[in-house]
Amino acid sequence: MSGGRSVLLTCAGQRVDIVRAFQRAIADAGWDGSVVCVDSHPLSPSLFAADAGGVVPPIASDGYLPALLELVERHGVGAVLPLTDLDGRELCAARDRFAAAGATLMLPAAAVVESLWDKYRAHELFRERGLGSPDTWLADDLPADPGFPLLVKQRWGWGSRNIFRCADRAQLEFFLGYADAALMVQRACAGEEFSIDILCDLDGRALNVIPRTMIESKGGESIKGMTLADPELIAFGQRAAESLGLVGPATLQCFAEPEGLLITDVNTRFGGAFPLPLAAGSRYPELVLRLAGGETIEPHVGRFTPGVVMTRFYDAVTLDSAPPGTRELSQR
């Protein structure tokens, strides 16, 4: 069953850029649709830019999925996309319920989502699928001489949280004891870092692959970058996406090392630098809605404008008065 041209964006937070892009795609196509956003905080900026939606219960609560399904049915949502990595597993568990309500979940199979959420299992998955990945160990399985520099990383993490660079054994032992989280250790890559923004159809075919430089990033999110027409990066991104069975949008992080391109992370969502591939002609929001509407879209890998540069800045929403409940939130 194909749904409508409305989209539900979960954990929408600050992603006003994505909200507006979907609104433009709907308007430009002349569709009757809306952008529905949800978040757990009443002051999330996306909620003020969206056409509908609002505050929903926390992801871990029993009320989270029923709240999403109610919005899907009320607004005739055709596509459901998470904007963080936090609720992918919960959304996958409700895939059939979304489908019964006419909405397509733009995520790969639950096993893939689960593996990519766990950074150590992601490393194992990359190696299993014949994709390069830096040497990685669990904290208890380190070899006697792993070589330095190394990175201590949280296995379940996002936004560059709990990542510590270690130049020697003393620093390694300190950070393994310091971080209050499940950890792994990974060889630090010395080569240039790239991001690759990908969109796959519902059968796991890569429709487009757009590499970009990482000129500058903060908190794991690119704030300056440029699109690249690099055949090796494009081919690598396509092979990685299709071998992993990705569906919908994804962002791949990799480094150019002497032994080849090595993947360090894959996020099954639009990346933080979403405006850059959009400006380069990706048309990803439009294509997502067309896929959810049952259309077949032919792959057009590598068809984008190279050399487009992005430099990001902060913006704000100001309110005459705070929404109900924000005073209580500020006092917790």
Mind explaining what this structure looks like?
The protein has helices at 16-29, 45-49, 64-75, 88-93, 95-100, 110-117, 119-128, 169-178, 231-244, 275-279, 284-292, 326-330, and strands at residues 6-10, 35-39, 52-55, 77-82, 104-105, 136-138, 150-154, 163-166, 183-187, 192-200, 206-213, 216-218, 221-226, 248-257, 260-267, 309-311. The protein is α/β, with parallel strands linked by helices. The chain has a five-stranded parallel β-sheet, sandwiched between helices. It is globular. The mean pLDDT is 94.
List the helices and strands and how they pair.
Blueprint: E1 6-10, H1 16-29, E2 35-39, H2 45-49, E3 52-55, H3 64-75, E4 77-82, H4 88-93, H5 95-100, E5 104-105, H6 110-117, H7 119-128, E6 136-138, E7 150-154, E8 163-166, H8 169-178, E9 183-187, E10 192-200, E11 206-213, E12 216-218, E13 221-226, H9 231-244, E14 248-257, E15 260-267, H10 275-279, H11 284-292, E16 309-311, H12 326-330
Parallel strand pairs: 1-2, 1-4, 2-3, 4-5
Antiparallel strand pairs: 6-9, 7-8, 7-9, 10-11, 10-14, 12-13, 13-16, 14-15
